[in-house]
What does this fold into?
Amino acid sequence: MIYARITGTGSYLPPTTLSNIDLMARGIDTTDEWIVERTGIRSRHIADAGQQASDLALAASLKAVEAADIPAEKIDLIILATSTPDYVFPSTACLLQAKLGVSGAAAFDVQAVCSGFAYALAVAEKFIRSGSHQCALVVGAEVFSRILDWNDRGTCVLFGDGAGAVILEASNEPGVLASVLHADGSHHRILEVPGNVSGGKVVGQPFVKMDGPAVFKFAVKVLAEVAQEVLNQAGMDTGAIDWLIPHQANIRIIQSTAKKLGLPMDKVVTTVEQHGNTSAASIPLALDSAVRSGRIKRGEVLMLEGVGGGFTWGAVLLKF
Ligand code: UT7
It folds into this structure.
């Protein structure tokens, strides 16, 4: 039996931070109290003007490669989740591949917004389990600050930039135990960037538009459902989970999901306070921070789950 196992993690946050107080100083009509109480966010990282998603992805990937103790040449599959790609094309995965200085591996992007990393990891696992590939680099990288309307206080206070990466290798030991992915495109209006490039111009709106309360309700519902579904698929129950690593959108969504699952918050990795919502990067960023701080240990059972625009949602249950 071929399993797919995470053998290394890495992450990168751009050095510039923007606190809630900094946002107020920029003239945004908000307060630190409102943001902390409604979202749990205190600060977020913002990429410098010269940094693209592929640059953040490169820094995170190099750390994951080092942690896995493999030569970058061993990677035969690169899957990168982003909604803020460097270009319309080529894919940010191909640009990352060039920056890594390797060639030949299959490389493509996955677009599932905040569920992107769960999607990318589930896809990579299927490639490895099929026997077609042996060593995948799976990345979530975002520069969401580029698609924020800084006059819309309902969205601009929520997001941040960053990247996280894992190396997923073929192994005789588990590994990914189960994964579940879902989408319902009929809800695309509640979270979208409804613009595109046409005839040399941006047509539509190049900024995040969100119906916050509708997204909140949807997220709380599907995160609990998909967690149960992936546990059922693996024939396990919540008692088996050592760590829940949810998408980091809002501490209240995370608390509600943990409560529905009957998990105490000390089994939940949270980074939303310092990172904000980094979309596809939030799960691998949280994973790497908990691995590097020594909280997550080899052999523990992790539940990764995401929800985002599309609407998309998914969960991956794995033995680390
Ligand atoms: O990755 C998935 C992407 N997004 C999410 O998961 C976000 C999900 N949604 C949420 O996290 C929450 O809905 C928000 C944090 C976005 C909003 O919290 P809420 O408790 O649902 O607030 P609301 O949108 O119902 O707005 C309540 C009030 C409104 O004022 P009035 O109409 O009651 O006078 C807003 O205008 O809060 C006001 N408000 C703000 N006030 C200060 C909205 N944004 C802000 C702000 N600062 N930044």
